[in-house]
Amino acid sequence: MNWNRTSLLGLEDLTVEEITMILELASEFKRNLQNKVLPSKNLKGKRIVNLFMEPSTRTRVAFEIAAKSLSADVISIASQSSSLTKGETLKDTANNIQALGADAIVIRHPSAGSPLFLSKTIPVPIINAGDGSHEHPSQALLDIFTLQQKLGRLDNKNITILGDILFSRVARSNLWGLKKLGAKVTLVGPSTLVPKEFEKLGAVVSHDVDKSLKNADAIMLLRIQHERQSTSHFPSLEEYTKIFGLNMERAKLLKPNAIILHPGPINRGVEIDSSIADSKNSVILQQVANGIAVRMAILYLCANSSDLQ
Questions:
Q1: For 167, which of 6, 228, 278, 285 could close a Cys bridge (C-beta 3.0–4.6 Å)?
Q2: Is the pLDDT of residue 129 over 80?
Q3: Within 10 Å of residue 49's Cβ, how many Cβ atoms?
Q4: What is the pLDDT, as a whole number, of residue 123?
Q5: Are residues 206 and 230 in the same domain?
């Protein structure tokens, strides 16, 4: 294994080989978890700090469980309990965390580019757990991991991502990763939330939900990112749900074996009906479970980066 990176900032600059390395290691860790076996590759003696400047449940808890499953010590810091509320800069916060002996920092921040900034500021591995509307690499990797489990190789598979693309870091990271693995990605939603500019990134852009569902091998639903929008990009939630929501009638257009994903949190009755979210085609809870193994792989590679290079 030859891992040449210190930090994981996004999927845009990862190679196919690096993505494959993470996913193969995640498969090994998943087998360990299923068999309740302590992994031989671990982080015993390492100190992982979770620095979350935005609310999070799945990502924060998954990173905590992943680190503890690798025998690392974990410290989690939320924005409300940090000195950032007193005017301390992000740089000074990170410098203090490093001085306290952090071996890696997992950061979620509302400002795009924050993880990159820290990676250039302090000599500690930085793992991006979501930065503004930019990227969310660990989520995309667990999505891809789940897709591979269900669909096998992703070459020429049709993956539809439906919802608020413009403000979604999940959509961007998935687009980078899926395209590199040979999948065909279609982005669907209102024209205000799915601009044609995304075609420059190699995606098919569509505003016709019904047409986009028919050939999909998998469909990923995204919630509306109200917290990142300064103005409304559609008349009402009711109208959005009527035109773009995945309801029972619209789901009949899907292939019988098409799988349904959602990075969460789910807004039931808005982007997806409860009956579909809980259906046999849904792999939403499998995504959550897979997130632990994938984040174990990320933490292991980054926290041990100096030894693996």
A1: 228
A2: yes
A3: 22
A4: 94
A5: yes
For 5-31, what is each residue's pLDDT tens digit?
A: 999 999 999 999 999 999 999 999 999
Which residues constitute the domain of residue 217? 137-288
Amino acid, single-letter form, for residue 40:
S
Number of structural domains (the chain) is 2
Inside any domain, residue 10: no
pLDDT confidence band for 228 (50 / 70 / 90): very low
3-state secondary structure the chain: CCCCCCCECCCCCCCHHHHHHHHHHHHHHHHHHHCCCCCCCCCCCCEEEEEECCCCCHHHHHHHHHHHHCCCEEEEEEHHHCHHHHCCCHHHHHHHHHHCCCCEEEEEECCCCHHHHHHHHCCCCEEEEEECCCECHHHHHHHHHHHHHHHCCCCCCEEEEECCCCCCHHHHHHHHHHHHCCCEEEEECCCCCCCHHHHHHCCEEECCHHHHHHCCCEEEECCCCHHHCCCCCCCCHHHHHHHHCECHHHHCCCCCCCEEECCCCCCECCCECHHHHCCCCECHHHHHHHHHHHHHHHHHHHHCHHHHC
Q: Is 116 domain-assigned?
A: yes
The model's pLDDT over 156-189, given as tens digits with 9 standing for 90+, comes to: 999 999 999 999 999 999 999 999 999 999 999 9
Asked if 126 and 236 sit in the same domain, the reply is: no
Does the residue 1 lie in any domain? no
9 located within any domain: no
Q: Which long-range contacts (CB under 8 A, 24 or more apart) does 98-101 make?
A: 98/122, 98/123, 98/124, 101/47
